[in-house]
Amino acid sequence: MATGFQYCLNSSTIKTTPILQKIEVAAKAGYVGIELWHDDIDAYVRSGGTLADIRKAVDDAGLAVPTTIHIHSWFQPEGEPHQQAMEEAKRKLEQAATVGAPHAVAGPPHGPADRELGARHYRELLNLGREFGVRPSIEYLGFVEDFTTIEDAIGIMEACGHSDATIILDPFHCFVGGGPIESIGKLTADQIAMSHFNDAPAEPPHQQQRDPNRVLPGDGIVDLKLYCDMLRKVGYDLWLSLELFRQDLWDRDPLEVAILGLDKMRTAAEA
């Protein structure tokens, strides 16, 4: 039975900090992993840097990169737009492999979800990932129209019929999307690529909350003890990654934010 977790910093939490500094901050604060965003990677390369620079910074800091974020527009539609989306997915999967990430986050559509098409395309995406040794992992988002719960993701994972299918969990999305935390019990540990970690306030109502409403673990009303207990129940002992999107945190010293966040995560997860 799992007893602990590995703590990771989702680099969105210190979004306005340059990518190499983000890596340095995560290591100094005491994290063992960092999630990197493709937008940040692209910006660094456009400025004259290289993927090799990023990989060296990660390796020198002694950090893992559990995921890169994110692949979009793969779920639907069909035709030429889908082919373009898959070409972009290929580019991001190659980036993920180069910086050492075993998974890449694959986001859902923001409108109505064609589940039959999504399952077929997820299988295609997983096969593409095998070319790079990176497993695209499906994410549900509590604030989108039609793909808001763990069950929604499980449905696609099952329907795609691919052994590499995995999920990204997130307590904020459970709260906002209205899906029960107990649905974690329908998963096995090896189906969970990553658990983001955060909390949600009592107000506004959960249906109105969006990314900027997220709060630090323990500062909201989500039952994080139940959440962590459910992860332990299925034997998951890998990543909890602090994922916030708050301007007030971006305005602060990034190392201070990272240290505070790690302390908050440990307190909530080990209670």
Q: Please, what is the CATH homologous superfamily?
A: Divalent-metal-dependent TIM barrel enzymes
Number of domains: 1
| Helix-strand category | alpha/beta
| CATH fold annotation | TIM Barrel
Low-confidence stretches: none
Question: Main attributes?
Answer:
single chain, 271 residues, alpha/beta, TIM Barrel, eight-stranded parallel barrel, 10 helices
What can you tell me about this protein's structure?
This protein has 271 residues and is α/β, with parallel strands linked by helices. It has one domain (6-269): TIM Barrel (Alpha-Beta Barrel), CATH 3.20.20. It has 10 helices and 8 strands. An 8-stranded parallel barrel has the order 1-2-3-4-5-6-7-8, surrounded by 7 helices. Helix 1 runs parallel beside helix 3 and helix 5 (115-130) packs across helix 6 (150-160).
Question: What's the quick description here?
Answer:
The chain is of the alpha/beta class and 271 residues long. Helix content is 43%, strand content 14%. Helix 5 links the parallel strand 4 and strand 5.
Provide the fold topology.
Elements: E1 6-10, H1 19-29, E2 33-37, H2 38-46, H3 51-61, E3 67-71, H4 79-99, E4 103-106, H5 115-130, E5 135-139, H6 150-160, E6 166-169, H7 171-177, E7 192-197, H8 224-233, E8 239-242, H9 247-250, H10 254-269
Parallel strand pairs: 1-2, 1-8, 2-3, 3-4, 4-5, 5-6, 6-7, 7-8
Helix pairs in contact: 1-3, 1-10, 5-6
